[in-house]
Write a structure and sequence with these properties.
It holds the Pfam family ICL. The structure is a single chain. By secondary structure, the protein is of the alpha/beta class. Helices cover 48% and strands 11% of the residues. The strands form 3 sheets. Strands 12-6-4-3-2-1-14-13 form an 8-stranded parallel β-sheet. It has a 3-stranded mixed β-sheet with strand order 5-7-11, with no helix packed on it. Strand 9 and strand 10 form a beta hairpin. Helix 11 packs across helix 12 and helix 13 crosses helix 14.
Amino acid sequence: MSNYSKAIDDIASVCGANSTWSAINPESAARMRIQNRFQTGLDIAKYTAKIMREDMAAYDADSAQYTQSLGCWHGFVGQQKLIAIKKHLQTTSKRYLYLSGWMVAALRSEFGPLPDQSMHEKTAVSSLIEELYTFLRQADARELDLLFTDLDAARAAGDKAKEAEILDKVNNFETHVVPIIADIDAGFGNAEATYLLAKQMIEAGACCIQIENQVSDEKQCGHQDGKVTVPHADFLAKINAVRYAFLELGVDDGVIVARTDSLGAGLTKQIAVTNEPGDLGDQYNAFLDGEYVNSADDIDNGDVVIKANGKLLKPARLASGLFQFKKGTGIDRVVLDCITSLQNGADLLWIETEKPHVGQIAEMVNRIREVVPDAKLVYNNSPSFNWTLNFRQQVFDAWSEEGKDVSAYDRANLMSEEYDATELALAADERIRTFQADAAREAGIFHHLITLPTYHTTALSTDNLAKGYFAEEGMLAYVKGVQRQEIRQTIACVKHQNMAGSDIGDNHKEYFAGEAALKAGGKDNTMNQF
């Protein structure tokens, strides 16, 4: 929120004290100041951390007050998302941005497309945060510039009521700048490396950093095989490193999301250090698969043996040198991971699951909440899930348990288009529609995100355009499928020159050079066709 007249008065006072600044128009300078509310990334991090903390408290009071985000891989994508939210929903409240490490690897690395294995340049993460906020700040400047243009027109027309209406909009302007939940993967190295990158991310504007309990040099996408976790002490050291980074930079209420991949991770790189029975290291080691030995004769060359439960245990070790967890221990390990993280500095949890199932998530969260009652999750509504098939099968199974006749459906083939208009498919779609509200209410999910939706939307829209443009439709494919839709749906970037800042630049030229300014947006500007 700004006070337009006070901003003008403040700058007029400064200019009035400098006799050589007579060419400076205080109102023009005030407009530029209002259009650039956030001076640094740290200003953004402090502002958005406060928002996120308030949203967390609101959720604790009412689970219907959950938050959402979409992953964005470019500043323009994030900008257009927030512009759309303001246009259609009138407020950005409880809507965030998500920065996906998967998309940074796939789309932002100088090596070219990479898998989600922390092989990309780690500075690409902080660079994308800075880029996203640059575009969001430009969205502020553009919208305010349009208001200032309307204000000048109202004054020129002598319309006092319109002038007052526009001034109210300026003074109550809602910024496009919202919290970013930023993925730091497994920390890109040791705890010191994690601290250094966390600092860069916070300085770029991140108020919330998500870190996972996989090993840095063996990190895998959460929805692929071969995941390897680390002992709790190693992970907690990195949580501490992120907290130190927040505190050093004065973002005292910065948010840390502790992600556990233990549900799908069956391996560990190392045996945890333990000093006494029942400590964290001992609890971690208790999940190791292996066999108890009675003498040295049971030990082969190179075997590792530890003491567990008062006996000698030879952990199962793979040819890779990795150790294996017992089958069926994933949920127990997740619960221990989450409780431990919350008791040691994390604010929110992320449990990576293999399917979107409210009951499965609730089972784990309810156990966690027995120890930490206000435990809350950030949940990945992942494109790696086949949502249609998963929910059709959930409905099929529920109907079967209820004794409802499902003989008309082939459970293994429920993805088939032939089922799209059936009662089962419609019931499944309704469950998908309400999944976020249901999971927020029943499974402790504070924040719902989709990690890489704009990766898929870019591919889909490009495919649709190319299919027609390079075939018989020719230019009609673009006009009918893109430009006409932009006009009909009042998509702001149909006036692409304005979106890129041309009108802001014209106004600045007038501020700087007065009537001598050479403007681009005159009568011969083709943007006037829209």
